[in-house]
Amino acid sequence: MTEIREEFIEQAKMIARNSEILPGGIEELAAKFQYSHDTGKPLRIKLGMDPTRPDLHLGHTVVMRKLREFQKLGHKIVLLVGGATAMVGDPSGKSETRPALSKEEVEKNAETYFEQMSKVLDVSEAEVVNNADWLHKMSFTELLKLSSKVTVAQMMTRDDFAKRYADGKPISIVEFFYPLMQAYDSVEIDADIELGGTDQRFNTLLGRDIQTAYGKKYPQLVCLLPLLEGTDGVVKMSKTYPEHCISLTDSAKDMFGKLMSIPDNMITRYYSLLTDVSADELNKMDEQIASSSVNPRDLKMKLAHTITAEYHGNDGADAAQADFINVVSNKGIPDDIQTVRIANGKSLLDLLVELGFTASKGEAKRLIQGGGVKLDGEKVSDTGLVLENLSEVVLQAGKRKFAKLVTE
């Protein structure tokens, strides 16, 4: 075997930062890089996306940033829209069967994906494909051939399937087809490396098996990236939990404020996964936090500015920071708050939901009980409060949401 050159080992080490390379680790990835160089053929780097929702969040950018690294090394990014797989629904990590999306829902949700991704990647240089183009055309005979490549025992090694089976919860046969469909995508696009979150371990590794079964001599490697926690620092970032999710479509002010709300123990993790900060800088931050030689708030301020600037530009980040300092640090009120005219006798709970300050009355009630709602700077304790005879009273919900209330 040809000795792998140092430059490709260094490239592999860079890609392996924050990621797990399967099955052969850095050495096998470096060999892929050298083979690509020697043959003059860029590697084909696959990322599959099921457009189950119309917007992306910072958790998605962890994988997208890794794609950018491959792109800078000269390899071909293949962005695969799951037009067919989204209509099945990925069962990874799910405790019950997911509802399938219609063709119209898939197409509608996919419309904004690439515009948002272009904030991280050079989408114009990527190859964009839709697995509906081949999966919807498969004959029943071809489908049977594909399903013969994997056993029920293999499928049941997935933790989510095994747990649901043990708990007596139903598993639809169509859910077995999702990983098969995703794996066959790697055959169709001739993927050399597939990226995904750590919850995609089974699906992506199955792609290797299916490629081998269909005759690919050097099947794809798998690059798995961590799942970013939401702003609560516990549950993975997801639109299922909007109060802890930072969307790429958030305003600069909201993005900055949400980043400032992460717990201190998430500071270096967010820096590591969402910025280009070096390992040495991360180690220095950890030491400073541990020794209390720096105020964590200052590190978060820099983090929030760095990330917000990436998606809204420096001017947007500067304005968001100034607003945050005024509202939160100096306990001020924004200059641009909306004036809302409400009917006399309006329920505060109803108003908080109608303004979008909370997602539900239950959340509104918890926010009040936790002292997070104020009228003209005074905390509200009565969850049954009715608003009457108000003249330009400032409502504050949490640290960043304001409205000037006038009753009619």
Describe the structure using short key phrases.
single chain, 408 residues, alpha/beta, 6-stranded mixed beta sheet, 17 helices, 14% strand
Can you offer a commentary on this structure?
The chain has 408 residues and is an alpha/beta fold. The model is unreliable at 93-98 (pLDDT under 50). It has helices spanning 6-16, 25-39, 58-72, 103-110, 113-117, 132-135, 140-147, 152-155, 159-166, 173-188, 201-213, 252-260, 267-274, 279-291, 296-329, 348-354, 361-369; strands spanning 20-22, 44-49, 76-81, 127-130, 193-197, 221-225, 338-342, 346-347, 373-375, 378-379, 386-387, 391-397, 401-407. Helix 1 crosses helix 2 (25-39). Helices cover 46% and strands 14% of the residues. It has a 6-stranded mixed sheet, sandwiched between helices. Strands 7-13-12-9-10 form a 5-stranded mixed sheet, with no helix packed on it.
Q: Topology of this structure?
A:
Blueprint: H1 6-16, E1 20-22, H2 25-39, E2 44-49, H3 58-72, E3 76-81, H4 103-110, H5 113-117, E4 127-130, H6 132-135, H7 140-147, H8 152-155, H9 159-166, H10 173-188, E5 193-197, H11 201-213, E6 221-225, H12 252-260, H13 267-274, H14 279-291, H15 296-329, E7 338-342, E8 346-347, H16 348-354, H17 361-369, E9 373-375, E10 378-379, E11 386-387, E12 391-397, E13 401-407
Parallel strand pairs: 2-3, 2-5, 3-4, 5-6, 7-13
Antiparallel strand pairs: 1-6, 8-11, 9-10, 9-12, 12-13
Briefly say what this structure is.
Helix content is 46%, strand content 14%. It is an alpha/beta fold.
| Low-pLDDT residue intervals, each spanning 5 or more residues | 93-98
Radius of gyration: 25 Å
Query: Secondary-structure element order, as H and E?
Result: HEHEHEHHEHHHHHEHEHHHHEEHHEEEEE
Share of residues in strands: 5-15%
Helix-strand makeup class: alpha/beta
DSSP summary, beta strand count: 13
Number of helices: 17
